[in-house]
Specification:
This protein is α+β, with helices and mostly antiparallel strands. Helix content is 22%, strand content 30%. Strands 13, 14, 15, 16, 18, 19, 22 and 23 form an eight-stranded mixed sheet that branches. A hairpin with a 2-residue loop joins strand 7 and strand 8. Helix 7 packs antiparallel against helix 11. The N terminus is likely disordered.
Length: 505
């Protein structure tokens, strides 16, 4: 349970009060990111931020609930940084304006805030609530909508009103007035709502996203927005979101671009993933990935996250099923691989998977991590072992060495919430990790992919890698969250349907 709580805080990036500053001479409006020390009690509060643990997978699998230019300069919205885990800023709704703190989230597409009609949810009383009767520009639509998150759900009804984001005033903007917040985590969370910056394809209820209206109403010079997330704990400013362009002060060199492969999330094709200078082989032929400002960590398939956590010395949950499989079936799996059996058919030939062809390792991985029972558990463990063994076979390791290695990997399978912790004193001995995007390597050092909470003997370090399995055809999927975006300034180019990355300044 300790690890679960440690991860909770990694998602509450939007929790501190933000202050709106005047537009600067370069036309950018900046909101400074404030920082607070990360402690265990704060971590327990942060589970709310994992909006995607289930809903992300559901949406990717199709199971979710429901151009003109102006001559203005880009508008920059300053961001507040909470615990190096979530970034948020201020928006206002209505005439006269009512102010709310929101997470600017590229992993969703709806704008929602609590409603004054939220009476029976305690969480609403801890946040600013929108009062439509006090706005002269308000229109109630009234469609009932619900959004499911990993730690609870929100529900309410659709409305329209003027929304102010920085210096940009968006008229007749769709949003959800929330009348029910169904989780304790909504009470503890200090942000009021979420402003989604994803594509309309994933907007619940088909509501028009704020970004789309900015474009259609000619409020931005370019169909581009960009994020700078400040990871320097000594700085007061937490980051900056720029609408209509980029701020050259916050990146070094030129951006390298990759095309958006699928509209919905900001999804692209990622290449091989390296630990140190060595390929894991997992994404050598390509993997789907998304860039998500609303996810704190780097999320990836359990199989490869386990290898990463083993390599960096992170401790996860011991899976007795995994170790049992290595002990009882390891020799058989090895022999089948060596004899040339296709890796995808090894587990079925070993009698551990009974479908026509092996099912995906990501289809039910939680049963492995949580110690479930039945044939599915061994099937999932077998498929993980096949991937690990196959990678070791490429390096011409002996059977004994490979089985020993896989047995140790079993001990590093992340906890059910996907997170792992690590000794803070071991950072200097840990390897770099690198993502291949386009034809470039994007490297993270241990200091960049490990999040530290507390000081001295109270210090706790959290692996920046968490397990999240999305089954084919949508997966395997990587989610490059704020750990990645803090190192690499990111441009979301809607006009050209591409993503750009450059080293943050």
């Amino acid at each position: 349970m300790g690890n679960r709580y440690l991860w909770l805080a990694l998602c509450l990036w939007a929790l501190l009060p933000a202050s709106m500053l005047d537009a600067s001479s370069d036309g950018l409006l900046r909101i400074n990111v404030k920082k607070r020390p990360l402690d265990i009690s704060s971590i327990k509060a942060a589970r709310k931020g994992d909006k995607y643990a289930k809903s992300l997978e559901n949406r990717l699998l199709g199971l979710a609930d429901s151009e003109s230019e102006s001559e203005s300069e880009p508008d920059a919205v300053p961001l507040t940084n909470y615990l190096d885990a979530q970034y948020y800023g201020e928006v206002s709704i209505g005439s006269p304006p009512q102010t709310f703190t929101v997470i600017f989230d590229t992993g969703s597409s709806n704008l929602w805030v609590p409603s004054s009609k939220c009476i029976f949810s305690i969480a609403c009383y801890f946040h600013n609530r929108f009062k439509g009767t006090k706005s002269s520009t308000y229109t109630k639509i009234g469609d009932q909508l619900q959004i499911n998150y990993g730690s609870g759900s929100i529900s309410g009804f659709s409305s329209k009103d003027t929304v102010q984001v920085g210096d940009i005033s968006v008229i007749d903007q769709d949003f959800i007035e929330v009348t029910k917040e169904g989780s304790l985590s909504f009470i503890i969370g200090k942000f009021d709502g979420i402003l989604g910056l994803g594509f309309k394809e994933i907007s619940v209820g088909g509501l028009q996203p704020v970004w789309y209206n900015m474009i259609e109403q000619g409020l931005v010079k370019e169909q581009v927005f960009s994020f700078w997330l400040n990871r320097n704990e000594a700085d007061e400013d937490g980051g900056e979101l720029v609408f209509g362009g980029v701020d050259p002060d916050h990146f070094i060199g030129e951006h390298s671009y990759v095309p958006v492969s699928k509209k919905g999330y900001w999804q692209f094709n990622m290449g091989d993933f390296l630990i140190g200078n060595q390929s894991t082989g997992f994404c050598a032929d390509g993997c789907a990935a998304i860039v998500d400002s609303g996810t704190s960590l780097l999320a990836g398939p359990t199989t490869i996250v386990t290898e990463i956590n083993y390599a960096i010395g992170a401790e996860g949950v011991l899976s007795s099923e995994c170790k049992t499989l290595v002990r009882e079936y390891g020799d058989m799996i090895w022999d089948l691989l060596v004899s040339g059996v296709t890796p995808g058919k090894v587990c079925s030939q070993a009698g551990l998977c009974f479908s026509s062809g092996a099912q995906s390792v990501s289809s039910n991985i939680e049963s492995v991590v949580e110690g479930g029972v039945g044939d599915t558990v061994l099937c999932e463990a077998c498929q993980m072992a096949v991937i690990w063994m196959q990678n070791q076979l490429r390096q011409s390791e002996t059977k004994e060495a490979v089985l020993s290695y896989v047995d140790k990997l079993c001990e590093s399978i992340p906890s059910p919430a996907g997170e792992s912790v690590i000794d803070c004193n071991s950072l200097s001995q840990m390897p770099n990790v690198s993502f291949t995007i386009g034809d470039k390597l994007y490297t993270l050092t241990p200091e960049q992919y490990i999040l530290k909470t507390g000081e001295g003997i109270a210090a706790v370090c959290i692996s920046g890698f968490m397990a999240l399995d999305v089954a084919p055809p949508a997966g395997p999927l990587w989610i490059l969250g704020d750990v990645f975006m803090g190192v690499y300034h990111t441009v979301f180019d809607y006009g050209n349907l591409q993503l750009g990355f450059a080293k943050s300044a």
